[in-house]
Design a protein that fits this description.
Layout lengths: L10 E10 L2 E11 L4 E5 L6 H8 L7 E6 L2 E2 L5 H7 L1 E3 L12 H7 L9 H6 L2 H20 L15 H13 L5 E5 L7 H16 L5 E4 L3 H7 L2 E6 L2 E6 L1 H5 L2 H8 L6
Parallel strand pairs: 3-8, 3-9, 6-7, 7-8
Antiparallel strand pairs: 1-2, 1-4, 4-5, 9-10
Length: 263
Amino acid sequence: MTATGQDRPIVEFDDVHLAFAGVKAISGVSFHVGRRELFAVIGPNGAGKTSIFNVLSGVYRPGQGTVRFDGTDVLRLRPHAIAELGVARTFQNIELFANLTVIDNLMLGRHTHISYGVPAALAWFGRARRAELAARAAAEDIVDFLELEAWRTYPVGLLPYGVQKRVELGRALAMQPKLLLLDEPVAGMNLEETEDMARFVLDIRDELDIPIIMVEHDMGLVMDLADRVMAVDFGEAIATGTPSEVQSHPDVISAYLGQESMS
């Protein structure tokens, strides 16, 4: 019996294969993500983690397999169309406009909700004015949610690294996503910044009810936050399960965690 509606996973990633000039980046990877789940993908550098994200967001088109988001086959869709369906993403490297303020960067995340044309924008009346006011209200809500009040009018290029990563997270939230892809959200952060980001990630899942797929090298963070974990190596999924199950899996210990378990 086929799952429908709320019973269907938000993401169905089935037997996906991706290669570049004969080199396999993803080899038969399959997983699903529930509608209130924080699903983590771990693995060594070059294991295929970011390639999985690029397939999900439409940057790469695999040679084989099926990828469904909220019941829709997304493999033939362009990245902007997948974003319009409700997939938002952050990146390993900060991709903000350094000369714009926090509020302006957040409002850029509202682009999928803007439908007025240039004449209405120039005149700033009717639908354009209503949409602009709604976008600013949404940005202000994110400022409150991510505790960015102290920096809201600062150019992001002047902000500490950890705060910039938080702004990038906020820009993704401004899209009002149905799914959030977090690519190494605490990379380069100190302990305090990491703890802050971990708290916000949990709040997104628990308070905003947004499912999350997270790629992360900080194993302590993954084990503390994730509902389930998939470990990949050389483009293949070598273990999927709860954090404790994956942490103790011999193939994961050998490939990623070293010869000794983290327990």
